[in-house]
Design goal:
The protein is α/β, with parallel strands linked by helices. It contains 9 helices and 10 strands. It has a 6-stranded mixed beta sheet, with helices on both faces. The longest helix has 16 residues. The chain is globular. It starts with a strand and ends in a 7-residue tail after the last helix.
Length: 253
C-alpha cells in the first residue's frame, strides 16, 4: 500500500485581509502524479510554493517525507526538485554550463550529457538557453529539477504555451520520470493534461478544495448526477487529428 510522502493539514495563507488558501488538507502518495487544478487566483500556485519552501504559510502543518516544513526546511530542500521559470536561467550560458552551475550549488557530481539525454537535448548541449525553442526550454527546466536526484518534483504549469507535439512530448517525459519512482506534483490549466497524466487531482476554488479523487471517478460522478454534454461526444478531439496528420515528432529550430 502506498504511503503519503506529503501531508498538508488545515493550510492557510493570508495576504493582509485576503485569504488565498483557506484551510485545505490533502495527502500526496508515494510514486503518484498528483494534480492541483483551479482557476486563476484559486490558491493552487500559493499552495505549491509553500510545499516547495518558497513561500511562508500563515498557519497549518505541512510534512514532507515525515519532516515538518517549519522544523526541517533545509533537509526538505535536499529531497525535492523545483522547476524554475525560464527567467531563472542565465541566458548566455550554454546548457552544459548551466547544469554544471546548478550541480555546484547542490554540491553534486553530475554527468551533463546523461542528464540532457533524459530530456532529448544532447544535440543542444553547447546551445545557449536563450537560443532554445519553448519546448526545449521547458524540457531543460525539468532536467534541472533532476540534478539533486530528488524524491519529489514540483512542476508549475509545465506545458503552457507549447504546441501539441511539444506538449505531448513533455507528457512522455513526465511519465518517464514517474516510472523511475519519483513523486510528481503538477499544476495545470489543461484538463485533458490532468486527465491523461494524474493519478489523482485536487480541484481548488477560492482557496478551498472542492473535489479530490481520481480523474475517472470525478467524471463518473458527474455523469451519474445526470450531466449530459451537448452533442454526441467523440472519441477523439481536434488535437488528436492535428497530431495524427502532422506526426508526433518535434519540429524545433
Amino acid at each position: 500500500m502506498k504511503v503519503p510522502v506529503i501531508s498538508v493539514n488545515n493550510l492557510h495563507k493570508k495576504y493582509g485581509n485576503f485569504e488565498a488558501v483557506r484551510g485545505i488538507s490533502f495527502d500526496v502518495l508515494e510514486g503518484e502524479i498528483f494534480g492541483l487544478l483551479g482557476p486563476n487566483g484559486a490558491g493552487k500556485s500559493t499552495t505549491l510554493e509553500i510545499m516547495e519552501t518558497l513561500r511562508t504559510k500563515t498557519s497549518g502543518e505541512v510534512t514532507i517525507k515525515g519532516m515538518n516544513l517549519d522544523q526541517h526546511p533545509n533537509e526538505i530542500k535536499k529531497i525535492i526538485g523545483v522547476q524554475l521559470q525560464t527567467s531563472g536561467f542565465y541566458p548566455n550560458l550554454n546548457l552544459t554550463e548551466l547544469i554544471e552551475l546548478f550541480a555546484g550549488l547542490y554540491n553534486r557530481e553530475v554527468d551533463p550529457m546523461a542528464l540532457l539525454d533524459k530530456v532529448n537535448l544532447r544535440d543542444k548541449s553547447k546551445a545557449k538557453f536563450k537560443e532554445l525553442s519553448g519546448g526545449q526550454k521547458q524540457r531543460f527546466s525539468i532536467a534541472t529539477t533532476l540534478i539533486n536526484q530528488p524524491q519529489i518534483i514540483f512542476l508549475d504549469e509545465p506545458t503552457t504555451g507549447l504546441d501539441p507535439q511539444a506538449r505531448r512530448n513533455l507528457w512522455e517525459l513526465i511519465r518517464d520520470i514517474r516510472q523511475q519512482g519519483t513523486t510528481i506534483i503538477i499544476t495545470t490549466h489543461y484538463m485533458d493534461e490532468a486527465e491523461v497524466l494524474c493519478d489523482r487531482v485536487a480541484i481548488i476554488d477560492q482557496g478551498k478544495i472542492i473535489a479530490l479523487d481520481q480523474p475517472g471517478n470525478l467524471i463518473d460522478k458527474l455523469l451519474a448526477a445526470g450531466f449530459e454534454k451537448a452533442g454526441e461526444a467523440k472519441k477523439a478531439n481536434l488535437e488528436d487529428v492535428f497530431i495524427q496528420m502532422t506526426g508526433h515528432h518535434l519540429r524545433e529550430e
